[in-house]
Amino acid sequence: MIPEITVAWQTTVAISKAITSALKTVKDIETKEAIAGIQDSLLDVQSKLLAAQSQYEALAEVKRQLEHKIVQYEKWDTDAARYALKEIAGGMFVYVLKPDHAAGEPIHWLCPNCFQKREKSILIKPGVDWLNYKCHRCAFEVIPTAPNYPSNAGEGFDIGTPHGF
Fold this sequence. Notes:
Blueprint: H1 2-80, E1 83-89, E2 92-97, E3 109-110, H2 112-116, E4 133-134, E5 141-142
Antiparallel strand pairs: 1-2, 2-3, 4-5
């Protein structure tokens, strides 16, 4: 009977160890599942942080571009104030550099079409003997005629005569 008790005892110990091992395995599985859940949450947070960083960088680029545009607009406004719209022939207008804003530049005319697009384009003569002036950007052309050519702009300054017109 003692050998049977010993075998029973050993069986009980073995079962106890098996149960402990099974419980440990269950705890390990629960722990592993909990860790996996935490890792999934961390990956989700990391993904959201990367998306937020990408949005931040995109917004920072938009901000930089807008700041650049503001600087360009302010620069244009300052430069545009140096010019006045003048009629150089019946119904033909150009922007003329104001003599008191010339700062050493020769008096010149700017294309009114390009000026409205915030671009400076000096009207030039295509040839030495030609009377017309042409914009190299938009092909605007003006042919001032002497009888209609105002000698005074009415604002206290002459509109100038580029290229000895």
